[in-house]
């Protein structure tokens, strides 16, 4: 299967080699583009590339997705990216392109700049990934792709029913497991990571928080976050901003993916609106408007997945820590039973 990187490499050389020759034959005047910018990275990189195109509408901005494994090797990718004025890359592992990773790409190119992946957990402290150590950390996919609830996993592993698990989603449980105390550590980790890429994003983080919830999940930010990252990268490399009106042209690419809700009790802590509506991924919006799940529906679907899974697939350090602590285990089970008895089981 041809990856997006392979397709983009072909498009690049078509533009550089084939199109000028055709223009010469047909007499067509080629439209000049400057600068030429390439953005390579994970699911966030499209939003950064799109924002860069809006910041510099006359530029040629190409997006290279480092999610799928490419047939091209690091040599061909390097040769292609060397034709650009600027290359902005997120970290990617050696399994994406044969012969090298993002560090090798940076070593070979003199026009490349690394930029960070945005990760922020404070709005979604319950969200975890279930990685199977016995299978090279392969992620277990559930009703929301790789996104799982640590409380749902705990409930399943201690033998609570899905209906009883529903009663864990309550303020008293969130207080018991520290879900209200994540902001400072999440902010600290985010800012420290940005500094590793020579970026101080403290002002940006403050501005994002003033706009409310700025993440769809731990690793899926909203478009204005990625636009600010693009602005900072432009400033870092001395690129000229020719358009500041981004909001009227925004494409919310990551909204097509799974969206993990900000629970109402946690949202209230931040003075924003929350809920228990889980959105499933919908990458082909022309075929339908997508599917959503209530909390009980989500838990029932999770339980169906966990029943088919091996024990190693439903292990997580946080859940394992709760289970190894007899006091916290008893407390969470008691809270679930008490909440269930008094009907404190949220729906939306």
Structural description of this entry:
The chain is of the alpha/beta class and 348 residues long. The chain has 2 domains: 4-115 and 221-254, Rossmann fold, CATH 3.40.50; 127-183 and 257-341. Helix content is 44%, strand content 9%. The protein contains 14 helices and 10 strands. It has helices spanning 4-26, 45-55, 74-81, 102-108, 150-158, 162-166, 171-177, 183-196, 202-210, 223-237, 264-270, 295-308, 317-324, 326-341; strands spanning 36-41, 60-65, 86-89, 112-114, 127-128, 131-132, 138-139, 148-149, 278-279, 292-293. It has a 4-stranded parallel sheet with strand order 2-1-3-4, with helices on both faces. A two-stranded antiparallel ribbon has the order 5-8. Helix 2 (45-55) packs across helix 10 (223-237), helix 5 (150-158) packs across helix 13 and helix 7 (171-177) packs antiparallel against helix 14 (326-341). The longest helix is centred in the N-terminal third of the chain and has 23 residues, at 4-26. The chain is elongated. The model has no long low-confidence stretch (mean pLDDT 95).
């Amino acid at each position: 299967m041809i990856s997006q990187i392979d397709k983009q490499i072909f498009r690049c050389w078509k533009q550089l080699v084939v199109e000028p020759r055709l223009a010469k034959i047909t007499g067509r005047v080629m439209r000049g583009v400057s600068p030429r910018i390439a953005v390579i990275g994970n699911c966030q990189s499209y939003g950064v590339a799109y924002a860069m195109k809006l910041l510099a509408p006359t530029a040629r901005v190409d997006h290279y997705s480092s999610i799928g494994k490419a047939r091209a090797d690091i040599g061909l990718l390097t040769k292609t990216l060397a034709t650009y004025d600027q290359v902005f890359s997120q970290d990617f592992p050696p399994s994406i392109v044969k012969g090298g990773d993002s560090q090798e790409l940076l070593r070979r190119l003199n026009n490349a700049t690394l930029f960070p992946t945005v990760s922020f957990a404070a709005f979604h402290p319950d969200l975890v990934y279930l990685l199977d150590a016995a299978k090279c950390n392969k992620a277990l996919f559930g009703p929301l792709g790789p996104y799982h609830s640590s409380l749902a996993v705990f409930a399943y592993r201690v033998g609570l029913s899905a209906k009883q698990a529903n009663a864990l989603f309550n303020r008293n449980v969130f207080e018991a497991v520290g879900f209200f105390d994540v902001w400072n550590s999440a902010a600290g980790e985010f800012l420290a990571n940005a500094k590793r890429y020579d970026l101080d994003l403290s002002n940006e983080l403050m501005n994002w928080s003033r706009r409310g919830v700025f993440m769809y999940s731990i690793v899926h930010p909203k478009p204005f976050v990625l636009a600010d990252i693009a602005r900072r990268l432009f400033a870092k490399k001395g690129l000229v901003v020719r358009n500041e009106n981004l909001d009227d042209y925004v494409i919310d690419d990551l909204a097509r993916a799974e969206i993990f809700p900000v629970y109402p009790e946690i949202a209230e802590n931040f003075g924003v609106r929350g809920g228990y509506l889980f959105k499933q991924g919908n990458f082909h919006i022309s075929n339908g408007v997508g599917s959503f799940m209530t909390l009980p529906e989500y838990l029932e679907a999770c339980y169906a997945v966990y029943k088919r899974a091996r024990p190693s697939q439903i292990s997580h350090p946080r859940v394992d820590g709760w289970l190894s602590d007899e006091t916290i285990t008893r407390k969470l089970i008691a809270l679930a039973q008490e909440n269930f008895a008094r009907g404190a089981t949220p729906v939306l």
